[in-house]
Write a structure and sequence with these properties.
It contains two helices and six strands, in the order αββββββα. It is of the alpha+beta class. The chain has one domain (7-93). Strands 1, 2, 3, 4, 5 and 6 form a six-stranded mixed beta sheet that branches. A hairpin with a 4-residue loop joins strand 3 (54-59) and strand 4 (64-67). The longest helix is centred in the first third of the chain and has 12 residues, at 7-18. It starts with 6 loop residues before the first helix and ends with a helix.
Length: 94
C-alpha cells in the first residue's frame, strides 16, 4: 500500500494506526482515495465526469459521489482498502 514512502513515513503511519488514528496522503484526482464523510475505508475511484468545479467519481465497487474543491478526494494514506474494490481490480488484471 505505501511502497514509495520513506522508512520514517512508514513508521509514522504505523504509529497512527496503532493509536487508532488515520492519515491521508492529501488531495488526489483518482485512484485509491477517501471521500470525507463517506465511510471508513479507501475505495479505488475513477473520474466519470466534470461538472463545473465538481468531479463525479465512481468506485470500482459501484459507489458514486462528487469531489469538490472544498471536499476533495484524499489519498488513501493509512486507511484500510475496500475489499470489493480490491477484488474487482484483481479481476481486471487476470
Amino acid at each position: 500500500m505505501n511502497d514509495g514512502l520513506s522508512e520514517g513515513a512508514k513508521r509514522f503511519l504505523a504509529d497512527c494506526a496503532k493509536a487508532g488514528g488515520t492519515v491521508t496522503d492529501g488531495p488526489v484526482e483518482s485512484g485509491w482515495g477517501v471521500l470525507p464523510f463517506l465511510g471508513r475505508k479507501a475505495h479505488h475511484w475513477s473520474v466519470v465526469d466534470k461538472v463545473g468545479a465538481s468531479t463525479q467519481l465512481r468506485s470500482a465497487c459501484g459507489l458514486v459521489d462528487y469531489a469538490t474543491p472544498s471536499v476533495p478526494l484524499l489519498g488513501a494514506g493509512s486507511y484500510e482498502h475496500c475489499q470489493r474494490c480490491d477484488h474487482k481490480l484483481l479481476r481486471h488484471i487476470r
